[in-house]
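JOB MANIFEST
job_type = single_chain_structure
chain_count = 1
residues = 161
[input]
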Amino acid sequence: MRASARPEHDSEEAVRTPEQEAAARAAEVWVNHLARTLKTCRLYDANNPTVIRFREELAQALARTLDEHGALTLRFTSDDVLCEDVSLYPARSRDDNLALAFYRDGVHAITFSPGIEPAEVEAFLDAVLLVSGQNAGDNDLVTLLWEAHLQSVDVDYVPAE
């Protein structure tokens, strides 16, 4: 487990305020919690108490992070999740590449706004599970998120045209 958020490019390390550093650390903690929740949801039945607890804690953690640090924007490359150019979850392998489902479906960034409801986090999580599982099928993340009508989630994506 990583102890702190890392700059994407060490040689181009930007000077960050203590508030930006704290926000990047909070984002890293939440993204790691997201990754663990996704893995847990894939391993166990949806009614498993552990799955339910992970999902609830994920929503609570995001709400706390947003209340403390304001809106959270995550950017996606083919192999990393970034927050203000700080690497949060680099791919360790093809199977452990959280960013790939977003990048593959044209999602450049997602911004979570304060006031997000637990139901919105649930819908976001369900959409990511649908497109990142072994049976992803024809679903794409942009469409699933758009159809979910998430008021506190803004998706920056590449249009299909």
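[summary]
Confidence is low (pLDDT under 50) at residues 1-12.
DSSP finds five helices and six strands in the chain.
exit_status = 0
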